[in-house]
């Protein structure tokens, strides 16, 4: 028995059992029997840099014990060889550890910096001596285990050379943080099998050179024609152009039909010309001001573009997203546009539409929206089947040094590890390495539908822009750059040295490019001259409409009642929470006309009728399923198994799609995503709801630079609806205000709509109008909070069926309009406070008008209503918000003009809270005191103000 223990316990049929025991031992030594623990304790322990022992491939354990078993069998006959066998076993394990070290940390030794000036920390783990190996072992044959070098056994010299070439040359790969074993092994196989340097054919090498010639040649041409003019050139990063060309062509070979690209300034003009096929002559005209202006426009390096190119898999549509100077904010916009295109194609896996986002290194590390976008990447509401990220890494952020101040992490790409994205760092001066990682990235995204990052480490030959002098802040770097040959020149010299082409042939290619650009010819040979129009959205039905165009938002009353009843029936054997059950029971009564209609019912019926009429609806935001204030309940939750039922998805088989998702806790990225979605999906209703109105503060850049200005900068139509809960309920400053004043300040040229509905019927027709009317303008809604359940904020089924959205609502109480001496104009919840106080005081000479649409201001509608009050002598604008906030400063001139048209000499007075640095009072007592004061002032029989 003892002999069996010593000789055969790790061989034959016992091998699998022993391997499993050893893996258990590595995780927890106390988890195996004592006899085995003592045995394993005497073996050299498998070391790993990973925090997870499960990251040790099982093949390492299996191969190790197979080798141990073989050595036992070979040496058991002679006791004197036991010590040699033990030494060999130890070294075999050390070889496995060496392989693991290169996979995990080889990138830290890789030759990534084209300039050769980046300081890298010494990595002891990659030394042979660290693993108790030496060059004296170079000729010893070891098992290669999971190392993919084409044979099961190799000398240590062969193994070491393969690891150096694979992980420490022009490519540094970070992938061992990925939990999924299949993904890790896929990357290992692809890289190790060709040592990260496949042999490319002469034709491919010449194609690479031609693309570099185009990239460098365009920059030189622009530099000579327009010296000192800002263009944010690509000099130093020219490898981006062959990278994008390969991405497009390889994606097309997989059957991709659309690619949406987002990028900031650096290299944008080069991408427009050399990737999208923009005619250089058109670009030159823009530099020279020879363009017609249809709107305010934007600078050249913010402009978008689209074109169609031919690939091995057929025609593919390329779209370059418009982008402001806020750099990374374009990332979620691209994701939203891609998601809309995928849904249009019923592309649930992301096989047909691919997002590519090009980042700057400093922005990628520094801007939080990058993290938010990564966090969205695998969620139900926002996933797009994986994004290919390219970091155009200049190694300097404007003038900020790379490591000391620009970030706290080793690489600018470290944020991508949060979603376990593989990261391929590559030296941009090695075009063939760039080509290889490009193919790797496209294939990974195709295989696993997940994000992948390429860190294209290059440099900036000029300053942040062409007017900068970079040596002021980075003198040593730019001393090196001035002496450094361009990527094109380096690669041409390499090919000449390999005999791929001659110096004369190289000169011929360069001169040929110069002739092409001088003739103003498009530089993309695969450009399709007559694009397939089915590859992109037709916006023509939505162009040229006016905001005053009417829309028929009426609904057959019987259809409305039937929908209202059917939607509010839970499925059989689907127990729902008691309060929710009461809500849907009440809604059935509302549908029947037995009780007045509240806000939640009216909103739900707006969606239901649109869906039934063929208009798709997408609703996202925090808590939208239930509604932050528990008014919506569009998603019913089974109380036994937590399954969900969405009634609006079960209206009929012919209905349009209804999508509703509770979003991650993000405003900036989520709102940008919905903007991108709505600029690509013109039909239907796209709604983003803030949990509280002030949450939109976190997305202000999206509001400023896209939603309110995108049409006039870039001619991009957008029908996005924003629901922003707004209302002064005495709950403090943070969640009272959606900052109405900010939106009104941004209003001009009929760019957006700002509405403050006060009845369920108003919200019903407002939402239907937004979808049915072909006008595509963003709709900003100051949504109520207390009005959701206010006993007087009600409507009838008839008002939903037969009405419309009224921009101005007239007085609803029965007043003798000829006796009215004062009109109070207001918006929102304050109307109900004013009306309640007026009724209590039996005032009959003051009328209250509600302006439900503050922009575009309905001046004609207001004049028409004012005409019914011939004897008014004064007018009041009353608001809850402080004087420096709300609608007063932005809208008073509109109201004064309407009053002047009606009757000269009627002065408009402000009534409301005094100006304040804070949106609202923090104490309930103070809130009520302020409310009582301005209500009293608005209704005072004697005018308490001086003209």
TrEMBL record:
Cross-referenced Gene3D superfamilies: 3.40.50.12470, 3.40.50.970, Multifunctional 2-oxoglutarate metabolism enzyme, C-terminal domain, TPP helical domain
Cofactors required: thiamine diphosphate
Any one GO cellular component localisation term in the record: oxoglutarate dehydrogenase complex
Oxidoreductase listed as a keyword: yes
Keywords from the named record: Glycolysis, Oxidoreductase, Thiamine pyrophosphate
Coiled-coil ranges per UniProt: none
Lineage top rank: taxon: Bacteria
NCBIfam families xref list: 2oxo_dh_E1, PRK09404.1, PRK12270.1
Assigned protein family: Belongs to the alpha-ketoglutarate dehydrogenase family.
Assembly behavior: Homodimer. Part of the 2-oxoglutarate dehydrogenase (OGDH) complex composed of E1 (2-oxoglutarate dehydrogenase), E2 (dihydrolipoamide succinyltransferase) and E3 (dihydrolipoamide dehydrogenase); the complex contains multiple copies of the three enzymatic components (E1, E2 and E3).
UniProt protein name: 2-oxoglutarate dehydrogenase E1 component
Originating organism: Halioglobus maricola
Species classification: Bacteria, Pseudomonadati, Pseudomonadota, Gammaproteobacteria, Cellvibrionales
């Amino acid at each position: 028995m003892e002999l069996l223990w010593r000789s055969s316990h790790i061989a034959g049929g016992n091998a699998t059992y022993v391997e499993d025991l050893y893996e258990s031992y590595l995780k927890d030594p106390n988890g195996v029997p004592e006899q085995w623990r003592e045995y394993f304790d005497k073996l050299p322990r498998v070391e790993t840099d990973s925090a997870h022992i499960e990251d040790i491939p099982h093949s390492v354990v299996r191969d190790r014990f197979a080798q141990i078993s073989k050595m036992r069998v070979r040496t058991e006959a002679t006791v004197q060889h036991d010590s040699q066998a033990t030494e060999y076993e130890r070294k075999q394990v050390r070889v496995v550890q060496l392989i693991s070290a290169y996979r995990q940390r080889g990138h830290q030794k890789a030759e990534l910096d084209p300039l050769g000036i980046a300081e890298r920390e010494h990595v002891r783990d990659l030394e042979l001596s660290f693993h108790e190996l030496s060059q004296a072992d170079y000729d010893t044959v070891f098992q290669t285990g999971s190392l993919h070098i084409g044979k099961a056994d190799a000398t240590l010299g062969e193994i070491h050379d393969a690891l150096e070439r694979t992980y420490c040359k022009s490519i540094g790969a970070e992938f061992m943080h990925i939990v999924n074993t299949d993904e890790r092994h896929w990357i290992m196989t692809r890289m190790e099998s060709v040592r990260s340097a496949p042999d490319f054919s002469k034709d491919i090498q010449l194609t690479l050179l031609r693309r570099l010639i185009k990239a460098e040649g365009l920059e030189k041409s622009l530099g000579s024609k327009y010296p000192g003019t800002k263009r944010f050139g690509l000099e130093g990063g020219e490898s981006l152009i062959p990278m994008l060309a390969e991405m497009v062509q390889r994606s097309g070979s997989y059957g991709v039909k659309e690619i949406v690209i987002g990028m900031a300034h650096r290299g944008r003009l080069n991408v427009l010309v050399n990737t999208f096929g923009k005619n250089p002559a058109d670009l030159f005209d823009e530099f020279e001001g020879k363009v017609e202006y249809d709107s305010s426009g934007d600078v050249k390096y913010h402009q978008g573009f689209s074109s169609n190119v031919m690939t091995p898999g057929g025609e593919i549509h390329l779209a370059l997203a418009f982008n402001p100077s806020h750099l990374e904010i374009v990332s979620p916009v691209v994701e939203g546009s891609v998601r809309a295109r995928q849904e249009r194609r019923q592309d649930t896996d992301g096989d047909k539409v691919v997002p590519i986002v090009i980042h700057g290194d400093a922005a990628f590390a520094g801007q939080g929206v990058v993290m938010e976008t990564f966090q969205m990447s695998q969620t139900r509401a926002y996933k797009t089947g994986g994004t290919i990220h390219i970091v155009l890494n200049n190694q300097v952020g404007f003038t900020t040094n790379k490591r000391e101040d620009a970030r706290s992490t080793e690489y600018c790409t470290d944020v991508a590890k949060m979603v376990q994205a593989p990261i391929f760092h590559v030296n941009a001066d090695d075009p063939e390495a760039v080509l290889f990682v490009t193919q790797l990235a496209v294939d990974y995204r195709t295989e696993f539908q997940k994000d992948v990052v390429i860190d294209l480490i290059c440099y900036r030959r000029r300053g942040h822009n062409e007017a900068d002098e970079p040596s002021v802040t980075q003198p040593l770097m730019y001393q090196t750059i001035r002496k450094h040959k361009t990527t094109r020149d380096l690669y041409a010299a390499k090919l000449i040295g390999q005999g791929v082409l001659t110096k004369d042939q190289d000169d011929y290619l360069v001169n040929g490019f110069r002739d092409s650009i001088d003739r103003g010819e498009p530089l993309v040979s695969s450009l399709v001259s007559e694009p397939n129009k089915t590859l992109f959205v037709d916006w023509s039905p939505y162009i040229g409409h006016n905001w005053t165009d009417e829309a028929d938002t009426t609904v057959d009353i019987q259809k409305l009642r039937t929908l209202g009843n059917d939607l509010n029936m839970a499925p059989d054997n689907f127990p729902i929470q008691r309060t929710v059950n009461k809500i849907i029971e009440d809604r059935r009564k509302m549908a029947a006309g037995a009780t007045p209609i509240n806000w939640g019912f009216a909103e739900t019926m707006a969606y239901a009728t649109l869906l039934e009429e063929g208009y798709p609806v997408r609703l996202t935001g925090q808590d939208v399923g239930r509604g932050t204030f528990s008014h919506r309940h569009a998603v019913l939750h089974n109380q036994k198994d937590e399954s969900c039922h969405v009634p609006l998805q079960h209206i009929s088989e012919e209905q349009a799609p209804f999508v509703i998702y509770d979003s991650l806790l993000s405003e900036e990225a989520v709102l940008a995503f919905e903007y991108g979605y709505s600029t690509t999906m013109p039909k239907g209703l796209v709604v983003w709801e803030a949990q509280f109105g002030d949450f939109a503060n976190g997305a202000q850049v999206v509001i400023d630079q896209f939603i309110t200005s995108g049409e006039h900068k870039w001619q991009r139509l957008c029908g996005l609806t924003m629901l922003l809960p707004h209302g002064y309920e005495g709950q403090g400053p943070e969640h009272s205000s959606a900052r109405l004043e900010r939106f009104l300040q941004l209003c001009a040229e009929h760019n957006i709509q700002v509405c403050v509905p006060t009845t369920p019927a108003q919200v019903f027709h407002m939402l239907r109008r937004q979808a049915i009317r072909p006008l595509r303008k963003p709709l900003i809604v100051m949504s109520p909070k207390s009005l959701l359940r206010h006993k007087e904020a009600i409507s009838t089924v008839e008002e939903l069926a037969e009405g419309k959205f009224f921009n101005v609502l007239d007085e609803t109480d029965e007043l003798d309009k000829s006796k009215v001496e004062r009109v109070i104009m207001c918006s929102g919840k304050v109307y109900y406070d004013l009306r309640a106080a007026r009724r209590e005081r039996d005032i009959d000479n003051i009328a209250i008008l509600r302006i439900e649409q503050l922009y575009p201001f309905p001046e004609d509608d207001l004049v028409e209503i004012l005409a019914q009050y011939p004897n008014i002598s004064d007018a009041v604008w009353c608001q809850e918000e402080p004087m420096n906030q709300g609608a007063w400063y932005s809208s008073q001139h509109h109201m004064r003009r309407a009053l002047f048209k009606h009757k000269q000499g009627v002065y408009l007075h402000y009534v409301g809270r005094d100006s304040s640095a804070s949106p609202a009072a923090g104490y309930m007592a103070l809130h009520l005191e302020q409310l009582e004061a301005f209500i009293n002032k608005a209704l005072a029989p004697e005018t308490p103000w001086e003209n």
